[in-house]
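Extended Data, panel c. Modelled sequence:
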Amino acid sequence: MHYRRLVLFAALVAATPAFAMHITEGILSAPWAGFWFVLVAPFFYWGLQEIQHRSEDDLRYKSLVALVGAAVFIISCMPVPVPIVGTCSHPAGTGLAALIIGPWATVVVSSIALTLQALFMAHGGLTTLGANLFSMGVAGAFVGYAAFLLARRLRVPLFWAAFVAGVTADWATYTLTSVELASALQGEKTFSQLFVALLIAFSPTQLPLGILEGFLTAIGYQFLVKRLQLPGLGTWDLGLAVRSEVTK
């Protein structure tokens, strides 16, 4: 227990770069690592079903999923150093992905991105893949997607609705990462104490980075919708293949 807490502390405050939003190998105990794998499994399964069903209706959908998957991989492994706190953060890209291919499919592409990063870039880990996928692929995608739908129903312009999606997706990812770590690593401190400490440690990097990702999501999504008009582009009500007229 003390060893895992020491590793976490070093990852948060060391002078060398660290990755704030991916939990590294060995941080979580086996029960907690298994818990997050079990929790994320249904989302992954329904994501595969969503991709299969949409591909039957539109053969170009798989190509779009592959393109978005590549984008999520690149975006989520772009560290942004912050010398003041000695850490490194990165955007997630799942907010934008959820708006383009839907949140269920975003879980699948996030799993591929996280697996490749764990295997070849020492970014995250295989034992923590379930936890990382749940925070980035599930929480990030679904929170950002729901925020976008809510904003559009409130007649928020497309650009700002996508901005809200990008911000909330990013912040939801790091908030749930804090929950995962606080749940697994609490010792002498209570869950709430460790959770608040983690939020404070992540805030200097993730708060401004979330706003930056919001603007990137808004610019990217508005460009794709209004200029490129990609096939199948739009939002779907929780993966039910119901097209929303987001450009109105």
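The first strand starts at residue 80 and ends at 82. This feature is highlighted in the accompanying rendering.
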